[in-house]
Structure formats: C-alpha cells, structure tokens
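We include the pair:
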Amino acid sequence: MGDDHDRSPVERQVAACRQIAAGEGWVIERVYEDVASSGVPRPGYDRMLADIRSRVIDGVIVYDLDRLTRSAAEHARFADLVDRHRVAVVTAGPRS
C-alpha cells in the first residue's frame, strides 16, 4: 500500500475530494487542475466555469476555497455563478 507522502500535494487534494464524493455516492465527471501561480492562464478553471454555465456539472468539490480562486473579486464572481446555477460547493480539506 502506497504511503500518502509518495503523492504530490495535488494528488493528495484530488484523493481527498474523491473520498468525499465516494462517501456521498457522487459521480466525479471531471477533475479540473491548473498551475497555482498568479498571472498564469487557468484552462482547467475556465473549463469548470463553462461546464457550470452549460449545466454539465451540478456540484464542485474543492480541497479548499483558497485553492480555487485567486482574489476576492474572482471569489465573488464564482460565488455568484454557482448561486445562479444552483451548483453545490463542498470543501474536502481539513476542518478547523
């Protein structure tokens, strides 16, 4: 059995999200990944937003919200989008 330390931080975050989905009986349609640097294009994030708009997905599991958006303005736009399209957002990271 592999040690969790053998996985990258992204792999551990995806595994935590998959664990939440499995526990709830949810199907993961797609995993969206991007480089975590400011100013770098985010094709995965952009695709997720497009999939929300076109109703391809009805929920988002994210490790932590600070991993999803890069600014308060971006967070506000994301929150508005998921609210308008009635998309559930669940975090899988450690609970404080």
